[in-house]
């Protein structure tokens, strides 16, 4: 009897857990859709920026800007790690941290001045456990990062970079590639390698003869920081979308596993109950036989 | 008459994407008016009002710097922030003006940034009426 009751208890617990994970999966799906919409809306801005950059590059302009140049020394390095504020999202944080840690080790071996900045409670907790000291912590980025918040960080980086306090900015985050594919990467955001972005198609023949107000050089001066901000913002958006996908997948797996467990447990329970009934029956029969 | 397609994008979203008859917005050194058939332009924006007239009525937005690209009939405006003129918080703009005013610049950069913030706050207040 005791065994059957224990199984019933466990069955109830698993059923409750399945309810929770199922709900979390649905919530993550809804959030993912929202985050995805935001990310695709933001893509329009990045695309326009690279369009203007392409227009500028058609003008034989000497592309020189402090943000584009590789500084003479690379003593001061900043590593920005984007993790989530909440857990239960599978290997999402672990894979970001794995990359971040190996990058950190690399920088340590090169004996650089490292500034470590972390966004997300999970990453902060993990690094604290490792005994790292963090120079900056952000917990204000949820599933819908706002441009104003990112702008503040971006402005600080630009200022530091231009004044030479920062020579290199790396960012460890999860890049969103497709809905079924996200990869944790470490990217170098500063110095900006190339402005053109991914698309380098040479459709020069349909180049339009633009009038530049004030001048191409002055527009370039303004557009480089704008492009950097857009890139940083995209990292945050990617991280947010990937987090929701990771949670969705993790919770889907959990729900399915709970379902499997329920069927195993109910079978075990039925067997236990049957055994018990059989043994009770044979006891009764045995008792009757003894009386005769 | 040919129409212009006005596209306003901010880093977060595409705010406006609609046909207009003509529009006016601030460039870095003053207002510019654009009518259909404008020659291609890439320009830096200033702070102030973006107003456009379309078949469905007039639009009025505050834009916060950025860039403009005019290519054929498409006018793309890239700005960090844009909001409808009637949503501007006057008190907030006034406060921004005062804090900008009370800053004492010591370097050239600080001076230009102060001037920029002042200009921006003034334009906002102007529009908030």
- Uncertain stretches of 5 or more adjacent residues of chain B: none
For the record, what CATH class of the largest domain in chain B applies? Mainly Beta
Q: Quickly count the helices of chain A.
A: 5
> CATH topology of the domain at 61-197 and 208-245 in chain A, which one?
Pyruvate Kinase, Chain: A, domain 1
How many separate helices of chain B?
2
Q: Count every beta strand of chain A, where a strand is a DSSP E run of 2 or more residues.
A: 6
Give the SSE order of chain A as H and E letters. HEHEHEHEEEH
Describe this entry's structure for a reader.
- The complex is a heterodimer of chains A (292) and B (129).
- In chain A, 60% of the residues lie in helices and 14% in strands.
- Chain A is built from five helices and six strands.
- Chain A has helices at 2-57, 92-109, 121-130, 147-162, 216-291, and strands at residues 76-82, 113-119, 136-138, 168-178, 181-190, 211-213.
- A five-stranded mixed beta sheet of chain A has the order 3-2-1-4-5.
- The radius of gyration of chain A is 28 Å and the shape is elongated.
- Mean pLDDT of chain A is 87; it is low at 197-205.
- Chain B folds into two domains: 4-85, F0F1 ATP synthase delta/epsilon subunit, N-terminal (ATP Synthase, domain 1, Sandwich); 88-128.
- The radius of gyration of chain B is 16 Å and the shape is globular.
- The mean pLDDT of chain B is 86.
- The chains are: A alpha/beta (292), B alpha+beta (129).
Task: Itemize the secondary structure elements and their pairings.
The complex is a heterodimer of chains A (292) and B (129).
Chain A (H helix, E strand, L loop, with lengths): L1 H56 L18 E7 L9 H18 L3 E7 L1 H10 L5 E3 L8 H16 L5 E11 L2 E10 L20 E3 L2 H76 L1
Parallel strand pairs in A: 1-2, 1-4, 2-3
Antiparallel strand pairs in A: 4-5
Helix pairs in contact in A: 1-5, 4-5
Chain B lengths: L3 E6 L4 E7 L1 E6 L2 E5 L6 E14 L2 E15 L2 E5 L3 E3 L5 H13 L5 H21 L1
Helix pairs in contact in B: 1-2
């Amino acid at each position: 009897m005791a065994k059957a009751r224990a199984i019933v208890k466990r069955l109830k617990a698993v059923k409750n857990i399945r309810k929770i994970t199922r709900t979390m999966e649905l919530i993550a799906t809804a959030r993912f859709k929202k985050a995805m919409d935001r990310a695709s809306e933001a893509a329009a801005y990045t695309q326009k920026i690279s369009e203007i950059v392409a227009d500028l590059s058609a003008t034989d302009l000497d592309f020189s800007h402090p943000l584009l140049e590789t500084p003479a020394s690379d003593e001061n390095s900043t590593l920005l790690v984007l993790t989530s504020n909440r857990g239960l999202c599978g290997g999402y944080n672990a894979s970001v941290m794995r990359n971040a840690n190996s990058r950190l080790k690399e920088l340590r071996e090169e004996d650089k001045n490292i500034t470590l900045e972390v966004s997300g409670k999970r990453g902060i907790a993990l690094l604290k456990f490792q005994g790292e000291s963090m120079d900056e912590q952000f917990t204000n980025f949820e599933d819908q990062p706002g441009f104003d918040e990112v702008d503040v960080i971006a402005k600080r980086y630009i200022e530091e970079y231009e004044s030479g306090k920062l020579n290199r900015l790396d960012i460890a985050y999860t890049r969103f590639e497709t809905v079924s594919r996200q990869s944790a990467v470490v990217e170098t955001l500063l110095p900006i390698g190339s402005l053109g972005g991914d698309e380098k198609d040479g459709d020069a023949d349909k180049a339009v003869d633009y009038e530049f107000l004030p001048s191409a050089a002055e527009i370039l001066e303004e557009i480089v920081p704008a492009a950097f901000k857009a890139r940083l913002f995209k990292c945050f958006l990617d991280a947010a979308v990937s987090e929701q996908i990771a949670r969705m997948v993790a919770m889907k797996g959990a729900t399915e596993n709970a379902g499997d467990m329920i069927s195993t447990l109910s079978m075990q329970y039925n067997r236990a109950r049957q055994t018990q009934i059989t043994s009770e029956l044979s006891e009764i029969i045995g008792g009757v036989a003894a009386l005769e | 008459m040919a129409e212009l397609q006005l596209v306003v994008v901010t880093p977060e979203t595409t705010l406006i994407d609609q046909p207009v008859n003509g529009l006016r917005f601030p460039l870095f050194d003053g207002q510019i008016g654009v009518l259909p058939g404008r020659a291609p332009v890439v320009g830096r924006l200033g702070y102030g009002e973006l107003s456009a007239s379309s078949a469905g009525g007039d639009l009025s937005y505050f834009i916060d710097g950025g860039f403009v690209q005019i290519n054929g009939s498409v006018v793309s405006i890239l700005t960090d922030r844009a909001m409808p003129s009637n949503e501007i918080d006057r008190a907030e703009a006034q406060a921004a003006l005062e804090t900008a005013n009370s800053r004492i610049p010591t370097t050239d950069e600080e001076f230009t940034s102060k001037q920029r913030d002042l200009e921006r706050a003034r334009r906002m207040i102007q529009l908030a009426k």
